[in-house]
Amino acid sequence: MSKKIKIIPIFVPHQGCVNDCVFCNQKKITGLSTSMTKEQVIFIIERNLKTMSDDCQKQIAFYGGSFTAIDLTIQKELLAVAKSYKDSKRIDKIKLSTRPDYINRHILDILKENRVDIIELGVQSLDEEVLRLSNRGHSIKHVYDAVKLIREYKFTLGLQMMIGLAGDNEEKCIKTAKEFIKLKPDIVRIYPTLVLKETLLADMLSSGEYQPVNLEEAVRISAKLLMMFTFNGINVIRVGLQPTDNITEGNDVLAGPFHPAFRQLTESYIYRLIIDESFAENDIKDTESISVEISSKQISNFVGNKKTNINHITKVFRINKVNIMANNELKQEIKVYIKDEIIDIDIKKYTKKYLKENGLI
Ligand code: SF4
């Protein structure tokens, strides 16, 4: 069994960003306003290591700004600290996130020398207009070039995308996801766009230039993307923004599809789609009650937030009572007991059916 991954997050504030992406207020996201020093890095690593057991995989993660765009001297200083922990086997992996236009051979040589394992690229969209309206300051070509080089150097590749940016729509998100799948990343993150205080997007919101997607739409689009990636064997390590103390609705989030359990909403919505596909095909409807067997881990996704999926089954398939039973032998499968019949629902099969019917594969 693979070891549980424990992250030691080191937030490197806005340093190094040559431009301001309209949605970004990195100082707010990281909760820091000063630059990061090597002494602080050591302090953070030591503090985190004290809380970690020996049996987990420990990763140092440089998040926040665009790491490889920071002044090279600072970059090397911070990386040297991380490397010393890896050399002494006190941590297992080093990862960082950065911009696609700050990847070149010289940078990758430095990252290799310092034993970095994982590079996550903030791509956000593979639509030129969306990149331009977001003031990303790089083009699609930068993304493809960066991915090619990262692959050549054999780093683990992560790609991050956003939904609901200015000029964006569902079709463009799907197109970006399809392109991501072709690029074969090892990991993906999906972030819904939130309007944070003190950002250009906040100004665009008040001038009426920008309209965020609502929560329902964000969940619907994210569900499609998550299904596409998962079906293609790509590990989606995050859906939604991590709710930190200062990223809470009404505090720093002015507008946008914020929800503290965004991923759970998305996974529940996927179950809704699977229920619709499989119940219709197997004629599961018009009965007083059914019993459903599912792995305990998936029960909350099947039931849905505030029982939305159960209410959906009652309303759409006219079934008054749904009994849920845990069966941890079931992984990619659900068993439905209806009268004297047992129906096996293969989740992968219905995911494929849905993706095919909707032109997503
Ligand atoms: S590149 Fe990243 S850190 Fe820099 S402004 Fe854009 S989103 Fe913020």
Alpha-beta content class: alpha/beta
Which fold does the CATH topology of the largest domain refer to? TIM Barrel
Q: Terminal Cα separation, in Å? A: 31 Å
- How many helices in DSSP terms? 13
| Total beta-strand segments | 13
Question: Which ions, cofactors or small ligands are bound in this entry?
Answer: iron/sulfur cluster
Estimated helix fraction: 40-55%
Return the domain count.
Answer: 2
Task: Give a brief rundown of this model.
The protein is α/β, with parallel strands linked by helices and 361 residues long. Helices cover 40% and strands 22% of the residues.
Describe the protein:
The protein is α/β, with parallel strands linked by helices and 361 residues long. It has 2 domains: 5-260, TIM Barrel, CATH 3.20.20.70; 268-357, 2-Layer Sandwich (hypothetical protein PF0899 fold), CATH 3.30.2320. It contains 13 helices and 13 strands. The strands form 3 sheets. It has a 7-stranded parallel β-sheet. Strands 11-10-12-13 form a 4-stranded mixed β-sheet. β5, α7 and β6 (187-192) form a beta-alpha-beta unit. The protein is globular and about 70 Å long. The model has no long low-confidence stretch (mean pLDDT 93). Bound molecules: iron/sulfur cluster. Residues 17, 20-21, 24, 26, 65-66, 99, 122 line the site of iron/sulfur cluster.
Protein topology:
Blueprint lengths: L4 E8 L13 H5 L7 H12 L7 E8 L7 H16 L5 E6 L6 H9 L4 E7 L3 H6 L6 H13 L3 E8 L6 H14 L3 E6 L2 E2 L3 H7 L8 H17 L3 E5 L13 E3 L6 H20 L5 E8 L4 H5 L4 H10 L1 E8 L6 E6 L2 E6 H11 L4
Parallel strand pairs: 1-2, 2-3, 3-4, 4-5, 5-6, 6-8, 10-11
Antiparallel strand pairs: 7-9, 10-12, 12-13
The site of iron/sulfur cluster has 9 residues, from loops.
